[in-house]
């Protein structure tokens, strides 16, 4: 049977990413897949580019009335609603770790008989995800960290101002260079340097000429806190935490270091302030594009400031590159969706298990 993919318009404000690009649309069409694309003024790729690649263009939000065999594809949450969900949906639902509203969402699937294939749970046999945004999260997270360092160095009153999606990585690098002016890029340390996010962070910092210390599991085996982190101006945390661990830094350690501390900004790409295992236990909540930093320590008296960047949707700040990369990783699996494959069966099983626990 012909696979019918339906790319919905994102409803989350500021979300410009897409899981299929116009170039991908052409490859899907060439493989016999039918693609419908909802109009979107927010998406990084123009509707006309999808149309030129053979996609049918329909109104925003039309997916709810799509033919039942269509597979509805998106990036972020569905619009808030209570209607039963009858389709197969592919997107990041943020529901299987029992996040806010998970029961209600799964209830809608149960009522409508639909299926949720969560993009976070499309995995190979070795447990690695088939498609992830991590590289660009690290790249952008490090860049916002550099902007925050430059802002502190300039001594401008108030916190770093809002950041908005950059149209390309070149423009992002230009923005960092402009903020640094004739000052050198910050000495930096990246933890989780061998992973996707960590390598993205190291690449951005390298492009700015920053001296980078790269650590992964081997260097942290002894367990934190690590005074070596405090000797860098910028710390990018990009580790994937799997369970209980000692923190990499603590408030007490930072305050006691006094003037020996060079650390001014932490770009916490891993960004899990609500987890009991958070290795950067210095802040209470995520930050936003509107207010990218939170002051974790100091800034009063003679205690030097320490700011944390903790944006949990960093790749949205570089929507073109992150979409192109993600879509390229996902495409071979979309082509297998009609026949099913271990990747899709695995994701469906996670959904069925969670549905049963609801
Ligand atoms: N903020 C965002 O927008 C955003 C976006 C995507 C991913 N993330 C998060 O970034 C984190 C990393 O994701 P990824 O895709 O790069 O994962 P990854 O699995 O590719 O890389 C993680 C790396 O961390 C290393 N690591 C694990 N424990 C460590 C420890 N104790 N000390 C040192 N290194 C350690 C691993 O060896 C690995 O190299 C995840 O928590 C993910 O949820 C955040």
Task: Describe the fold and architecture.
The protein is α/β, with parallel strands linked by helices and 358 residues long. Helix content is 32%, strand content 13%. The chain has ten helices and twelve strands. It has helices at 22-30, 47-52, 102-112, 134-154, 169-180, 196-207, 217-220, 251-257, 319-334, 342-357; strands spanning 4-7, 34-38, 56-58, 71-73, 88-91, 115-118, 188-191, 212-215, 234-237, 265-268, 293-297, 306-309. The strands form two sheets. The chain has a six-stranded parallel sheet. It has a six-stranded mixed sheet with strand order 8-7-9-10-12-11. β9, α8 (251-257) and β10 form a beta-alpha-beta unit. The longest helix is centred in the middle third of the chain and has 21 residues, at 134-154. The radius of gyration is 22 Å and the shape is globular. The structure holds nicotinamide-adenine-dinucleotide. Nicotinamide-adenine-dinucleotide (NAD) binds at residues 132-134, 137, 191-192, 194-198, 215-217, 220, 238-240, 245, 269-271, 311-315.
Short overview:
The protein has 2 domains: 156 residues, Rossmann fold; 183 residues, Rossmann fold (3-Layer(aba) Sandwich). It has 10 helices and 12 strands.
């Amino acid at each position: 049977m012909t696979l019918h993919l339906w790319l919905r318009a994102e409803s989350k404000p500021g979300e410009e990413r897409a899981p299929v690009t116009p170039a991908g649309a052409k490859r899907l069409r060439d493989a016999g897949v039918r693609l419908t694309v909802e109009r979107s003024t927010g998406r990084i790729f123009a509707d006309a580019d999808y149309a030129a690649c053979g996609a049918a263009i329909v109104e925003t939000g039309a997916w709810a009335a799509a033919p039942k065999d269509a597979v509805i594809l998106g990036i972020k949450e569905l619009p808030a609603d209570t209607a039963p969900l009858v389709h197969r949906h592919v997107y990041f639902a943020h529901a299987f770790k029992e996040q806010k509203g998970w029961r209600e969402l799964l209830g809608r699937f149960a009522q409508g008989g639909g299926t949720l294939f969560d993009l976070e749970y499309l995995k190979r046999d070795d447990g690695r995800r088939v498609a992830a945004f991590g590289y660009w999260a690290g790249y952008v997270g490090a860049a916002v960290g550099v902007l925050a360092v430059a802002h502190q160095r300039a001594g401008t009153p108030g916190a770093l101002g809002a950041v908005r999606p950059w149209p390309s990585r070149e423009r992002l690098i230009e923005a960092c260079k402009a903020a640094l002016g004739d000052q050198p890029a910050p000495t930096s340390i990246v933890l989780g340097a061998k992973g996707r996010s960590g390598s993205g962070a190291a690449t951005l910092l390298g492009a700015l000429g920053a001296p980078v210390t790269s650590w992964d599991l081997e260097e942290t085996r002894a367990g934190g806190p690590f005074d070596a982190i405090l000797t860098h101006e910028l710390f990018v945390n990009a580790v994937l935490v799997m369970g209980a661990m000692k923190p990499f830094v603590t408030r007490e350690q930072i305050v006691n270091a006094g003037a020996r501390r060079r650390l001014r900004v932490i770009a916490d790409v891993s960004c899990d302030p609500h987890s009991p295992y958070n290795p950067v236990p210095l802040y209470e909540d995520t930050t936003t594009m509107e207010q990218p930093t939170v002051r974790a320590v100091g800034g009063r008296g003679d205690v030097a400031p320490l700011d944390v960047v903790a944006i949990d949707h960093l790749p949205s700040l570089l929507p073109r590159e992150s979409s192109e990369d993600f879509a390229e990783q996902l495409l071979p699996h979309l082509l297998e969706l009609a026949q099913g494959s271990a990747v899709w069966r695995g994701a469906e099983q996670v959904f069925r298990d969670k549905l049963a626990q609801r």
